[in-house]
Design a protein that fits this description.
By secondary structure, the protein is an alpha/beta fold. The chain folds into two domains: 31 residues; 326 residues, Rossmann fold, CATH 3.40.50.1820. The chain contains 15 helices and 13 strands. The protein is globular.
Length: 473
């Protein structure tokens, strides 16, 4: 009883401290249940509706020495979470927030109205079929931070994977009821690096420990940066065939940029990309057939120079979705409700960090070697692609997958959603490709219903739905 009494007193002390500081450090308690309750989100500003699921947010320290802390937001499944798998979602950039994009305008249950202050419930949220974990990674992204300022200048692929693995190991200790649960990793854009690299780190960690510490079953990435050479070929081909750039610029792009990295390309490549951007004009390169946001708001970086994501479509067509997130997450009462450590968070929250992006260190020109390793490990691997994205278009993804030279198990075909073609798919030995018709770079934003169908098919281990003829009898 004495230990329990002191535990309750500690909890009360932490609770009072959290009210005073507007934050909550669950690391003070060794009891997982107490830590979970400290992270539980009771209600959100602008939430004028009830939800039947629990959700949590807070920090996990991934490096004690430098004080690197990653921010997460976890939403349990809307129905019977104990029977549902756990899915991690990562946005890319590098330097972009999974809270800003994945949660607030793509697959999360809480989306933001045009006033930037009111929430509405996403009818196609992925927590209808799974428990969804969002992670702001690496440090310097979203609300994630480090006590060592130089950490923000030294992010890269290797440390991101290492820190994300450390996050997961500690997160499962905080939420032990999910340890051993079927686990999947998903994401988009530069998460085309993050997702397979983290998957590789988990597979190797399990092998090292000779135990399935994290029960990783597979991963799925969308409009993903995979292989710089093939991705560049596909980008330039897509831009030219859709009439976005001139013949001369197309030739120059292939001449000057084909063998350049996407991250920190050469000056010559940057110059021809600037010319291409001028020719393309004021469109949204992430969704080429939809209007751009015309509000007085700084959108993401110039075409192809950085893989940052622009919000384009909400519940109704709204090209200014990103703007609403900036308003909402900069509210002190929102940050308090999410247990943000106000003393450590940036003075102004933003969807992406230029500081992280501009100082990115290691970025391999290809992750196809990781695919080869993980295909042999038996993971379920799916790659999906919105077909109106010019940043990492379908052509890029197909070139990269073709480079793997995998045998075809089920040939190219259309898949259907409510009797309409939702896109096309091909199944290879160890990998499935799915395109989503009419979707841009952020597939769940542009085609939320079809994206939920995609997730259901992926988690089931089956195929995308075929056309079902309705009998007259």
């Amino acid at each position: 009883m004495l230990n329990l009494k002191w535990g309750l007193l500690i909890c009360l002390h932490i609770f009072i401290k959290s009210i005073i500081n507007g934050s909550c450090d669950a690391s003070f308690s060794s009891d997982p249940h107490t830590q979970q309750q400290l992270d539980r989100v009771i209600s959100l500003p602008g939430q004028n509706f009830d939800v039947g699921f629990a959700h949590y947010s807070g920090y996990v320290t991934v490096n004690e020495e430098s004080g690197r802390n990653l921010f997460y937001w976890f939403t349990e499944a809307a129905d019977d979470p104990s029977s549902k798998p756990l899915v991690l979602w990562l946005n890319g950039g590098p330097g972009c927030s999974s809270i800003a994009y994945g949660m607030a305008e793509e697959i999360g249950p809480f989306h933001i109205e045009k006033d930037g202050k009111t929430l509405y419930l996403n009818p196609h949220a992925w927590n209808q079929v799974a428990n969804i974990l969002f992670l702001d990674s690496p440090v310097g992204v979203g609300f994630s931070y480090s006590n060592t300022s130089s950490d923000l200048l030294n992010n890269g692929d290797k440390r991101t994977a290492s820190d994300s693995l450390e996050f997961l190991l500690k997160w499962f200790k905080r939420f032990p009821q999910y340890k051993g649960r079927d686990f999947y990793i998903t994401g988009e854009s530069y998460a085309g690096h993050y997702v397979p690299q983290l998957s590789q780190a988990i597979v190797r960690y399990n092998l090292e420990k000779q135990e399935r510490i994290i029960n990783l079953k597979g991963y799925m990435v969308g409009n993903a940066l995979t292989d710089d050479l093939h991705d560049h070929l596909g980008v330039f081909e897509f831009m030219w065939t859709t009439g976005m750039i001139s013949d001369q610029t197309y030739k120059q792009l292939n001449l000057l940029c084909d063998f350049q990295p996407f991250i920190h390309s050469s000056e010559q490549c940057d110059k021809i990309l600037d010319i291409a951007s001028e020719e393309v004009g004021n469109i949204d390169p992430y969704s080429i057939y939809t209007p751009t946001c015309t509000a007085n708001f700084r959108l993401s970086s110039p075409l192809l120079k950085r893989l940052r994501m622009v919000g384009t479509v909400g519940r109704t067509y709204d090209p200014c979705t990103e703007k609403h997130s900036v308003i909402y997450f900069n509210q002190p009462e929102v940050q308090k409700a999410l247990h943000v450590r106000s003393a450590n968070s940036p003075s102004k929250w933003d969807t992406c960090s230029d500081l992280v992006n501009n100082n990115w260190k290691d970025s391999p020109t290809s992750v196809l070697d990781v695919y080869r390793e993980l295909i042999h490990s038996g993971l379920r691997i799916w790659v999906f692609s919105g077909d109106t994205d010019s940043v990492i278009p379908v052509a890029s993804t197909r070139y990269s997958i073709n480079a793997l030279k995998l045998p075809t198990v089920r040939p190219w075909r259309a898949w259907y959603d409510d009797g309409q073609v939702g896109g096309w798919t091909q199944e290879y030995a160890g990998l499935t490709l799915v395109t989503v018709r009419g979707a841009g770079h952020e597939v769940p934003l542009h085609k939320p219903k079809q994206a939920l169908t995609l997730l259901k098919s992926f988690l089931s281990g089956g195929s995308m739905p075929a056309f079902e003829r309705i009998s007259d009898s």
